[in-house]
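Same chain as my last thread, 130 residues:
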Amino acid sequence: MRVQVPPPALKKIVLFFISLFLLIGYILFTAMYNQSYYLEANQITENPSKFEGKRVKVSGVVFNLDKKGRDYKFFLSKDGKGVFVKFSGAVPDAFGDGVPVVVEGTYKNDTVFAKTILTKCPSKYESAQK
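reply #2:
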């Protein structure tokens, strides 16, 4: 015995599955698009061509800070190796030379063009210095 589904109910079921398929596709697409590499500053120098044009998050310590208005240029270092960073905008209060930070942006031509800068928790590195 075969049960027949009335046409309006069948349309709702088909629309539900199409919507579900589109939602899953959207979630997967945005997850892949927002993917970025998380590296320490010395790791990016090991194979820079691998990261060319890609989104990266890089952690390290700020050195040679050069500030002109809201534009910042500095060297982000870990174990003596690192990468240059350019950033334009507001920075955290604790930001400065010798401060551990994480920058997020795009890596191009041996430079990270940062969109965000986060300083690591001051209590973590202040207690380590004492």
